[in-house]
Amino acid sequence: MTILPLSGQKDLHLKDYIHKDYAQCLAANRLSTFDQIWGYQQDWFEAPNKRRGGWSGVGRLELPKGNGTLKVFLKRQEDHQRRNLRHPLTGEPTFASEFRSMMYLQKRGVPVPVPVFFGQRVIDGHARVILMTEELVGFKSLDDLTKDLFSSGKASVSVQRQILRGVAATVKKLHAVGVVHRSLYPKHLFVCWPVEATPEVAVIDLEKARVNWVTAVRTIYDLDSLNRRAAYWSRTARMYFFLQYLGVRRLNRRQKLLCQLILRRSRRKK
Predict the structure, then answer these.
(1) pLDDT at residue 3, as a whole number
(2) Burial of 41 (0-12, 13-18, 19+ CB in 10 A)
(3) DSSP 187
(4) What is the pLDDT of residues 10-58, one digit of tens each?
(5) Same-domain check for residues 130 and 166
């Protein structure tokens, strides 16, 4: 397995990545090469997004695997780049950036979808990228979960706090390895919540993620995004989450200032 950090390494070129645990399944379904996967006909799970001079779309597949099924999301894009520090002029395919982020975080114990296949080519002058990831079976977006439980009164305060603790722990772990998500909305945090058990929380949609070793930048940028989009959280829930994220029972002066900066940014953005 090749692990690529978010900066300081050479790009992948023609060497495809295939997760060793799924190579046999992909081969059995004739989806083990870039050309086979690129040419696969499917219905779109998310209609192709046409911008940046190209397009990017997502499909969902259920592949026979032994006595079961491998459920995956298949992302394909063409000429869909975004400029960054590594590629300031030509830009980098967004799925290539996402794959690198996923591998970086996976190695460091931050829960993310498992990459099954990754490959990129330049064909007739067009940059094509494939990223296949395992579906987070049993998970639900934090947005949907809190809409169902928090706003309806179905969840007690203790249950709400159990979920918020799990979310705070994962966001804290993300930031602890130096990564800022840059689009940390509740729909990008997926929760597996078995009743009366500690929830599992995974981070998705890492196309914009970057390494930034300035702690305050990571915290303010991401917690502002989460605060603005957390439509179903009460003020008490927001403060509880913040306390859990910081790992304290009461805010000191510096932490109060940090909280105020996040709130000011949220009000300005709204």
Answers:
(1) 30
(2) exposed
(3) G
(4) 444 458 999 999 999 999 999 999 999 999 998 888 888 887 678 999 9
(5) no
132-184 pLDDT, tens digit per residue, is 999 999 999 999 999 999 987 788 999 999 999 999 999 999 999 999 999 99
Residues 104 and 204 reside in one and the same domain: no
The Cα-based distances of 266 to 101, 228, 229, 261 in angstroms read 26, 6, 10, 9
Do 111 and 163 belong to one domain? no
Q: For residues 130 and 64, what is the distance between their CA atoms, to the nearest angstrom?
A: 20
Question: What's the CA gap between 117 and 18, in Å, rounded?
Answer: 5
Q: Is 27 domain-assigned?
A: yes
Percent of the chain scored above 70 by pLDDT? 91
Decide if 56 is inside a domain: yes
In this model, does residue 112 exceed pLDDT 70? yes
Query: Tokens 């099924």 appear where?
Result: 69
How far is it, in rounded angstroms, from Cα 82 to Cα 93? 6
Q: Which of 213, 227, 210 is nearest to 167 (CA)?
A: 227
For the entire predicted model, the pTM comes to 0.90
* Integer Cα distance of 111 and 139 in angstroms: 12
Are 104 and 210 within one domain? no
Q: Could you tell me if 157 and 130 are in contact, meaning their C-beta atoms sit under 8 angstroms apart? A: no
Q: Supply the range of the domain harboring residue 110.
A: 17-134
In-domain check, residue 5: no
Whether the CB-CB separation of 129 and 139 falls below 8 Å is answered with no
